[in-house]
Amino acid sequence: MLRTGLLWLSEQPRIFSIIRGSGLARRLASRFVAGETVEAAVAAVTQLNAAGIRASLDLLGESVASAAEARGARDTYLETLHRIRRAGADANVSVKLTQMGLAIDERLCVENLRAIIAEARDHGSFVRIDMEQSEYTERTLQLFRGTFHPEFGNAVGVVLQSYLRRTERDVEDMIALGARVRLCKGAYQEPPTVAFPDKRDVDANYVRCMERLLERGTYPGIATHDTAIIAHAKEFARRSGLAPQRFEFQMLYGVRRDLQRRLRREGYNVRVYVPFGSHWYPYLMRRLAERPANVVFLLGNIVRESLRRN
Ligand SMILES: Cc1cc2nc3c(=O)[nH]c(=O)nc-3n(C[C@H](O)[C@H](O)[C@H](O)COP(=O)(O)OP(=O)(O)OC[C@H]3O[C@@H](n4cnc5c(N)ncnc54)[C@H](O)[C@@H]3O)c2cc1C
Questions:
Q1: For this structure, is 238 an active site residue?
Q2: 34-279 maps to which CATH number?
Q3: What are phi and psi of 159, to 5 degrees?
């Protein structure tokens, strides 16, 4: 119920204009978002790098409404790649196709993303195409298979979500292509016709897909904070004789920092997804939906703040 409500709220942009003014919401957002500017994001990456942890920078903002906005987002990504290089930081970027204009004009989206991938590739970096709601899954994978991967090879990778019923097949397609995959559970509200409604099925599918990617995939990104799944990945890799350098664990900025550091100390590659920018509202709502304790924390603070004011 709570999760459904929060995911619904994440898609109501008008509510953002109210919430954006709240100091409390901004403080909570700052736990999950590195800051509103490229400088703040690169500073966060430098700190992670100091602990041996890599990063993927994500400019917040999805479903842009105009070509100018999409080009603006492209330019910010180009600048981000430039600043990562200048700072000597170990980071790549993650991009959403709707932010590049997919919902407005597919050609515009392709042009924008081509520019970003070319810039990344020319400097030995990498672009991950994030996966969005299921209405975009097929188009995202078609563009990846038909355009971006043939043109840029493994300078670009994609994301698959274990809550989708189709994902086991997509995993096999990506293995056949030799493409780099980040595997996550999936963060959006989806109908039961396309996604497993029961979390146990999502988790079981994650493990199946993860084992296939570890066995046959190309440097898979195991993106989860689920300690049982992480333990399974470690044990599976050990039993299969797979060196820790052949895959990486990925987690979100501000989530399970203790675990991120522990895995790094154990010798695993760890990459943290670092979001930045002013459009943090839908992202924050999705993070709250993942862990009801975060909402309790938020409500507790609101009550305390209002008691203090009275
Ligand atoms: C690097 C990375 C990239 C991602 N990219 C995408 C993408 O492109 N598309 C997409 O749909 N989704 C993406 N996601 C989000 C993902 O789909 C999940 O929604 C999210 O990771 C939570 O699932 P989980 O695997 O951690 O498992 P869960 O079963 O949800 O959580 C396992 C445990 O992790 C902890 N935890 C999880 N989330 C939080 C939180 N927000 N705050 C505090 N603790 C938490 C809790 O202790 C929980 O018990 C990404 C996630 C990561 C880590």
A1: no
A2: 3.20.20.220
A3: -120, 140
